[in-house]
Amino acid sequence: MSSPIRRRLPFGYKLAASLLVLAAAFLASMLLGAADIGFREVWLAMTSSETSKNILLIREFRLPRELAALAVGAALAVSGAVMQGMTRNPLADPGLLGLTAGANAMLAITIALFPQAGYFGIMLSCFAGASFGALVVFGIGAVQKGGFSPLRIVLAGAAVSALLYAVAEAVGLYFKISQQVSLWNSGGVIGTTWKQLGAITPFIAAGIVLALLFSRHLTIMSLNEDVATGLGQNIARIKMLLYVVVIILAGASVALVGNLAFLGLLVPHIARKIVGPDYRFVIPISAAGGGALMLVADTLGRTINAPYETSITAIVAMIGLPFFLWIVKKGGRAFQ
């Protein structure tokens, strides 16, 4: 049976509600933290040229940080939704299937060998690493019959991710850049600058727009590839384009804030519970939900042990790991 939430409310109301939740999470992230900041100062930081201490703190540190959290949360949630629909694997997530680990390994190599690469060069290396991670995982799955089963793909992803993280650590130790690599691995948005946002967020925005453009094809493919072929869809071309979308989103996310797992698994399941299996609706709800969850996680990281920072990776994992285990127990049927 369909959920009462799905039956009663039109999609427009659900989208408006999700955007309100996102706006509330963003406002809370701007107000809460070690520094005592009020709503008026947040408003002035965004609308005036004042340069008081708190307004500069908001404008130069907190605002780009929270925009990065919003962008990365949306990117990872949308990439997770696309992967789950494309592979029909309820456990698909960029952090679980080797994409973010591959991006992280290439990021470490780039920092070691090309320290002057800049944000754009780092992002391109993350795209290459994410592509390599995905190819290895799905290559392992293709070796034998039944290799694309959800559990086997996740096990392959775990093994490949462990190897690629070891590569990143080895590169860090050999080239004496372990501290830099560890900072990326922590998955935080500390120190995000406007220059970073300007270089990377356009790719995230482009990836989400492409996901929306192919959402109808993704919906049909998620139900039955034979039906999609019968309706005249070029499955191979669409899959290739969707993989490019996932690689762009995952690679840009790692380039901006490092590795984060489980967020791309959790949010799309909740979105499908709210709006059903149509990815024209799942993707925008996932983008808003992923952004809100990342903002909440970052706010908790800044406040639960202020003035010290708690790793956002740990907070997301504490939320996502029990959900992952529940999905495994349900055999992928939870929140479907």
Characterization of this structure:
With 336 residues, the chain is mostly helical. The protein has one domain: Orthogonal Bundle (ABC transporter involved in vitamin B12 uptake, BtuC). The protein has 15 helices and no strands. It has helices spanning 4-8, 11-31, 39-47, 53-87, 99-113, 118-142, 150-174, 178-185, 194-213, 215-223, 225-230, 235-257, 263-275, 279-303, 312-329. Helix 3 (39-47) crosses helix 4. The longest helix is centred in the N-terminal third of the chain and has 35 residues, at 53-87. The termini are close together. The mean pLDDT is 84.
Give the helices and strands, then pairings.
Layout: H1 4-8, H2 11-31, H3 39-47, H4 53-87, H5 99-113, H6 118-142, H7 150-174, H8 178-185, H9 194-213, H10 215-223, H11 225-230, H12 235-257, H13 263-275, H14 279-303, H15 312-329
Helix pairs in contact: 2-14, 3-4, 4-9, 4-10, 4-12, 4-13, 4-14, 5-6, 5-7, 5-8, 5-12, 6-7, 6-12, 7-8, 9-12, 10-14, 13-14
Q: What tags apply to this protein structure?
A:
mainly alpha, 15 helices, 76% helix
DSSP strand tally = 0
What CATH architecture label applies?
Orthogonal Bundle
Low-confidence stretches: none
Shape, principal axes of CA atoms: globular
- Helix fraction, binned, reads over 70%
